[in-house]
Amino acid sequence: MEFNVINHQLCVGDIKIIGVASSALFLIGDVQTVQLSSAFDTPPESFIVGPFVPLAPKG
Amino acid sequence: MFSRISKVKSISNKTLIFSSTIQIGDCSYIDGNSQVLAIQKRSDNFQPQEFQFSDFSIFKRPLYIPRIDEPFLPQFSNPNPFIRVGNVHIIGISTSSFVGVGNVGHIRMESRVHHTRQIPKKNEETQNENGSNET
User: Fold this and answer.
1) b/e per residue, B88-110, with b = 16+ CB within 10 A?
2) Sign of torsion over alpha carbons B38, B41, B47, B50
3) Which of residues 61-120 of B touch A (CB under 8 A)?
4) Helix, strand or coil for residue A6?
5) How far is Cα B57 from Cα B62, in angstroms, rounded to an integer?
6) What is the ipTM of this complex?
7) First-to-last CA distance in chain B?
8) What is the pTM of this model?
């Protein structure tokens, strides 16, 4: 596949960001390759409503 | 090789934590990685080894990343070799994040987060407040 890009003027005003978090990326510039991977897990068994049974201490 | 010059008027940032980076200038590689175990628990005693990364499958599964070996021929031309940006205001950069000005070769970022909540039952809560252990 051929992919031709012509970059004419790129002019941006002010940028306001609250947060960049969890291996996120904010870049002003050119880049060749970007690979991003994210996994978030909160399964039903991670929501425990007491009573607590203390887990056996691990060696 | 395509590359433009980034012109930024100013950057202001309040908080930079947990292995995050602000970079001004070019670089070849960025490889970021963050693993988070978020525990919300109401308890008097925490065991030091109660929670371990190895107990959760999300930290053991192999990393899924998009392939970059697709057969395509990119061609870039830059009649205007500048990227002009005004003032940049950022409040927080956290957990292996990256904020940069300049050209980068290859970027790979990974994030794994596991949330756990442990909430006491209502009657258990009142027992603790009264200081009695009646069942």
Assistant:
1) bebebbbbbbbbbbbbbeebbbb
2) negative
3) 61, 63-66, 68, 70-80, 82-120
4) strand
5) 10
6) 0.81
7) 74
8) 0.81
